[in-house]
Design brief:
ATP binds at residue 211. This protein is α+β, with helices and mostly antiparallel strands. Helix content is 39%, strand content 16%.
Length: 681
């Protein structure tokens, strides 16, 4: 009877599973819900996820240790895991909480191993260190120093006081009298950076960059010199070269000078001087440098446009190796403990667990490419560092850089941002794909240039024709190719997929003004076309003169992007109001009579977030639009954002009737805006 009661009770309450609130890690702790049970083993879920992730089985636990931290009253639970080179550390509000979980885990371990011997050893931290260093027991073969608090710098795996140390080659020692500082270039992490001249023994003058260290204590100096220990091992044309070091106080690092400075600042200051091919060239050059680092078993850990230097307009080099670490044969990753890290550039496993690999560098390089393609925009602007991981784990990625970005290139970015590290490409694969994309864009550019020359000749031979004929020819010259259909800006996927072009809301038919069977525009015009940022300068010099009052229109790719984003907003609205559901039999959209009440509050808010993201992307795209479209949108559609705010408020208040009304108004507003854009184009 009791046994049957337990089975019935399990349907409403899982009595086999115990759940505890704790933090994963000791120094940089990640809040989790720890779940223990015979079927779950030792599992966890984060605050934003309901699905459990299994960390380890009870059979794999070799030892259990609990202790109190020196800094506060928290309790630490450390598990030695078979086949792992480090301990699994969990922190609890108190030592008693840690002991309670340790007793339960120890009981499960004795049960599954059919053993009467306990694996649990409660002790103070100093006793724990003595045990690690003095015990010959076979169950303690791992590197516990990874979990023990060290200095305030990021030095987990560096073994500062060990038997081995990095030594700077004597070839890099430079006499301070050979150096002449000229001007300051800015501030670095440790001090000012100067432009200067190095006079060699052969009386040759070399332009150099000089990094200074403001603090002269030994700890800061050692950290400052760490970059030189790393850089002396590199010899690559796309990596800034270390020239030498002045080891007398104050210590100086002497490096190759990149005359044009940081890449991000250079992009922002010279927006009009770039075309897509140059930006692709930068990406390809950096990928070759990172492929070289990968072959040398180094992780950079700080790949960003601010850490790339510009030698000339067509040459960039990777720099700033202060966070770089070399991986060993025993460890395929580097684990950080302390120090400032670039959260908005980091991969999810690096944010959550401070693990850095070549594949986490791939994620960062994807963000760096996005910076380059957006001409220096910062990633995840307006989002706090603490909220970035929530965005990533909810499927949000950085948006399409712009209408000029080829689909193949955007697909590469998405591959770099795969949540599972093993699904990301290697740097060798990235370098190969970027070379292919760059070659194709160069070929397209040459073919378009020849085509424009032929059209220009034909226009000259027909100059005696009517003016509208020549105007049409001029429009053809300036019209960019639409062979690469630009994908919509990314948003969270919908459960039922995206709707077709023509979708009804209520009794009104909403259509985007395009043919269902074609991507070509139904509306064409012969008025002047404002050149885009990435059109050749020859095209920008050609102007048509159909009328005195010239009106700027967007390129076909820009309008194509508006079209995709309008579809995305309408699809998000339909998913929220549950008017349609994808049929799993034939893939067609069929009517769904579900009530407007949500399946869950979390799902409801997620659908609203989809709409908000889609509207945000559309409004951001307006920044690339001609002045006429911007003015029109500001005059007629400045209430667009307020509609989204109203929608969010109605969902929070569970007012589903008004929610439906606000959502439909958003879709209709997006449709009306797109229609007006087409009229102006």
């Amino acid at each position: 009877c009791v046994k049957r009661f337990c089975f019935l009770l399990k349907d409403v309450w899982n009595w086999e599973q115990e759940v505890y609130t704790c933090n994963l890690g000791a120094e940089w702790a990640v809040p989790i819900n720890l779940a223990l049970g015979p079927s779950d083993g030792i599992s966890y879920r984060t605050q934003n996820f309901t699905k459990l992730t299994k960390m380890v089985s009870f059979e794999d636990v070799l030892s259990i240790v609990t202790m109190k931290t020196n800094t506060d009253e928290r309790g630490l639970l450390k598990l030695t895991i078979a086949g792992s080179s480090e301990t699994l550390t969990l922190s609890f509000p108190s030592l008693s909480d840690a002991n309670e979980v340790a007793i339960l885990i120890d009981g499960y371990c004795m049960l599954v191993n059919h053993s009467i011997h306990s694996l649990w050893r409660p002790m103070a931290e100093d006793q724990y260190l003595v045990t690690l260093r003095g015990s010959s027991a076979p169950i303690l073969p791992v590197h516990y120093s990874l979990d023990i608090p060290l200095s305030q710098t990021d030095t987990d795996n560096d073994d500062i006081n060990g038997d081995y140390a990095d030594v700077l080659s004597s070839d890099y020692h430079i006499d301070r009298r050979q150096i002449h500082m000229i001007e300051s270039l800015g501030n670095g992490q440790f001090g000012e950076v100067y432009r200067g001249i190095l006079r060699t023994d052969q009386q040759i003058e070399i332009n150099i960059a000089i990094k200074t260290c403001k603090m002269q204590d030994s700890a800061t100096t050692d950290a400052f010199l760490e970059e030189s220990y790393v850089m002396q091992k590199f010899e690559h044309p796309r990596i800034i070269k270390l020239i030498g070091v002045c080891t007398e106080q104050p210590v100086l690092l002497i490096m190759e000078l990149a005359r044009l400075g940081e890449l991000r600042a250079y992009l922002v200051a010279n927006r009009s001087d770039f075309d897509l091919i140059t930006l692709l060239l930068y990406c390809e050059q950096l990928s070759s440098a990172l492929a070289y680092l990968e072959s040398k078993k180094f992780v950079h850990r700080d790949i960003a446009a601010r850490n790339v230097l510009v030698s000339n307009h067509e040459s960039v080099k990777l720099a700033d190796f202060g966070l770089s670490r070399q991986l060993t044969l025993d460890n395929s990753y580097y684990k950080a403990s302390k120090g400032k890290l670039p959260i908005k550039w980091m991969a999810p496993e690096s944010i959550n667990f401070r693990r850095f690999t070549h594949l986490s560098d791939v994620w960062m390089f994807g963000v760096c490419m996005w910076e380059i393609l957006t001409m220096g925009k910062k990633p995840f602007q307006g989002i706090a560092n603490n909220d970035v991981i929530d965005q990533i784990e909810n499927g949000v990625r950085l948006p399409l850089p712009g209408a000029y970005c080829p689909k193949r290139l955007f697909d590469l970015l998405q591959d770099c941002w795969a949540y599972e590290p093993t699904n990301r490409p290697t740097f060798l694969q990235i370098e190969s794909r970027l070379k292919i994309i760059l070659n194709e864009e160069q070929m397209n550019s040459h073919s378009q240039a020849h085509s424009k020359d032929r059209i220009y000749v034909n226009e000259q031979t027909l100059s005696i024709s009517k003016s509208n004929t020549s105007t049409a020819a001029s429009s053809l010259i300036l019209l960019p190719s639409i062979d690469d259909h630009v994908p919509p800006k990314p948003a969270l996927p919908y459960k039922n997929g995206y709707p077709n072009t023509r979708v009804p809301i209520g009794n009104n038919k909403i259509t985007t003004g395009r043919s269902e069977s074609s991507h070509n525009f139904q509306y064409r015009t012969s008025i002047d076309i404002k050149p885009t940022l990435y059109e050749p300068k020859e095209s920008q010099e050609m102007k048509s003169t159909k009328s005195k009052e010239k009106i700027s229109t967007p390129s076909s790719l820009l309008v194509d992007l508006f079209h995709s984003q309008t579809k995305q907003i309408v699809g998000a609205v339909l998913a929220l109001t549950r008017q349609y559901e994808m049929s799993h039999n034939n893939g067609n959209l069929s009517k769904n009579n579900r009530p407007l009440s949500p399946i869950s509050d979390k799902e409801q808010m997620q659908l609203v977030r989809n709409i908000a993201i889609a509207v945000r992307d559309l409004l951001q795209t307006l920044d690339y639009a001609p002045t006429s479209i911007k003015q029109m949108s500001e005059q007629r559609y400045n209430h667009f954002s307020s509609l989204v705010v109203s929608l969010i408020e109605t969902v929070r208040q569970r007012n589903y009737d008004n929610m439906n009304e606000h959502a439909v108004n958003i879709a209709r507003t997006a449709k009306a805006l797109f229609d007006d854009i087409l009229k102006l184009s």
